[in-house]
Amino acid sequence: MLTDITLGQYFPGTSPLHSMDARVKIVLLFIYIVAIFLFDNHINYGIMTAGAVGVVLLSRLPLGMVLKSIKPLWWIILFSFGIHLFSTPGEPIFKLWMLSMTWEGVVKGFFIGLRLVLMIMVSSMLMFTTSPLKLTDGLESLMSPLKKIGFPAHELAMMMTIAMRFIPTLLEETDKIIKAQQSRGSDIGEGNFLQRAKGMIPVLVPLFISAFRRADELAVAMEARCYQGGEDRTRMKQQRLHDVDFWAGGIFALFIISLVAVQLTLN
Amino acid sequence: MSIELKHVSHTYMPKTPFERLALDDISLLVPEGKITAIAGHTGSGKSTLIQHFNGLLKPDKGSILVDGVDIGTKTAEARAARRKVGIVFQYPEYQLFEETIAKDIGFGPGNMGCNEEEIAERVRFAMEFVDLDCETYAHRSPFQLSGGQKRRAAIAGILALKPKYLVLDEPTAGLDPRGRQALMERFCRLHREAGTTIVLISHNMDNIANYADNVIILNRGRVTLEAPPAEAFSRSELISEAGLELPEVKVIMDDLARHGLDIQQDAFTMDQAVQEIMAALRRQNRC
User: Fold this and answer.
1) B160, part of any domain
2) Complex ipTM value
3) Which of B173, B198, B220 is nearest to B42 (CA)?
4) Does B12 lie at the interface with A, CB-CB under 8 angstroms?
């Protein structure tokens, strides 16, 4: 069923990772991803993998869910592995016409694949442990310095919040409409491409209408509560740093220092 | 013949933290030619239950028989059996999509493989039935209609399928009292004239008291009561446990009885109540 999809992906929980401030998580994630691309020796890959695994264990999420998050990108990982396999110069394992597979390629391909996996794994940890609302709030306050140059940080965050808020609603609506049309004998998702495209019309038309109706109602509701946009708005839930954020920052700093130290001694 | 559910269970989002058992080992019978009401509080599993009647949802366990045919299989027979059940969902007006009302109502029959002539015939029949004048409305856009008219046009879209079993999920929600009564009267006429079996999903017990031959009460995914209205309403503890209320008329009659009126027969529709009160007063020589 359509509503079985876990979109927004947030998994409620009480782990240290869940209770961290969203801004801290976003910043640390950003630095981690930069680090993945900056440090490229084998020991550092080991440290980074250990870090990622540590984060996953700390989140106390079911491991299956974490692995599932990698699944959609499996083909990209495999593809980049294949590219590196054949395009890296070095000692060939075997030759196929102009392509030669090399040991260097195997190693490089493996580490590129590892980079991608680490990146996806850690990013999805952010999505899994942060509610969409906290996430956009965090993004908004991180982007707020850009307001000085006219960047609509608040409006953007509000749009993201609304969009995310309505994903489950619209999914549910889509599910209802599909079922209603199926009850009238329509075969949605069957037949060839043209038939399928035609089968979407009875679903898309009512869905669009209801999306516009909802947008309209929401706008009225927001206006009725005197919503006017970003200026001078205060928050119900202030974002504050807690002990756990400082601990996370400290541990992460140690992590980065050790990466830098390894990199410097090896070069 | 009938719709029969045997030990049906259904779980939403199995094997995730959001797992929820919506139907728990449900067995019930919707007899042909009767009006069966299914009542339950929000979240009791009513909507999940009816989606099993025509195979929109598949049970995790158990089976559903429509006229003795298991609809869970992939045979042509099962497909035909699923088509005997027409479901009018809550707020059906949100499923309208065509350019004209006639086309929208004809969508179902078209999918069933009816030819042009038959589609036109069915559209006419369905529109007449829901009291939308064919001449006036057939070529208008469904989105120009008023709320109540949209509702009726959408219901016509199901009636055009000429289902043997018509399942109505809160068909009168959001309508004004007059529209509500008119619509229910039309369903009753369909029941009388075409012999259509009706399944009425509602939490409005007054509606159920007025129309149903049989009441099924759902509570947290289980059937807690399956009985004719007279018997069902006498078990007020089960009804309040399921988060429902007795019909207003029944409550008043009980109050009158408690205050010393000699009421001998159960009454839960207005007409019955008037007669019974008159009879009681006559018995007590006050009239």
Assistant:
1) no
2) 0.85
3) B220
4) yes
Q: Which residue, A229, A248, A37, A261, is CA-closest to A125?
A: A248
d(CA A144, nearest CA chain B) in Å: 35
Cβ-based contacts of B123 with chain A (< 8 Å): none
Closest CB to B95 among A11, A62, A177? A177
Query: Measuring CA to CA, how many Å separate B24 from each of B10, B50, B61?
Result: 7, 14, 9
How much is the pTM?
Answer: 0.75
CB A199 within 8 A of CB A186: yes
Q: Which chain A residue is nearest to residue B160, measuring alpha carbons?
A: A184
Residue from B47, B85, B94 whose CB has the most chain A CBs within 10 Å, to mutate: B94
Indicate which of A175, A184, A208, A213 best probes the interface with B, i.e. most B CBs within 10 Å of its own CB: A184
Is the CA virtual torsion B108, B111, B112, B113 positive or negative? positive
C-alpha distance across the termini of chain A, in Å: 54
Contact of A180 with chain B, judged by CB distance below 8 Å, is answered with yes
Determine the residue of chain A that is closest to B110 in CA distance: A185
Radius of gyration, alpha carbons of chain B: 21
pLDDT tens per residue, range A188-232: 766 777 878 888 889 999 999 999 999 999 999 999 998 887 677
* Helix, strand, coil share of chain B (percent; to 5): 45, 20, 35
- Measured CA to CA in angstroms, residue B235 lies from B36, B129, B287 at distances of 18, 37, 32
Query: How many domains would you assign to chain B?
Result: 1
Mutate to test the interface with A, among B111, B118, B161 (most CBs of A within 10 A): B111
Beta-carbon pairs below 8 A across chains A and B: 60
Q: What are the mean pLDDT values of chain A's consecutive 10-residue runs (267 residues total)?
A: 52 88 94 90 90 91 82 86 82 72 85 90 89 86 87 86 84 90 80 80 92 93 87 78 92 92 86
Chain B nearest CA to A73, separation (Å): 21
Which residues constitute the domain of residue B255?
Answer: 247-287
Asked whether residue B163 is assigned to any structural domain, the reply reads: no
Strand partners, B82: none
Classify burial at B127, counting beta carbons within 10 Å of its beta carbon; exposed 0-12, middle 13-18, buried 19 or more: buried
Taking residue A31's Cβ as centre, other Cβ atoms within 10 Å add up to 15
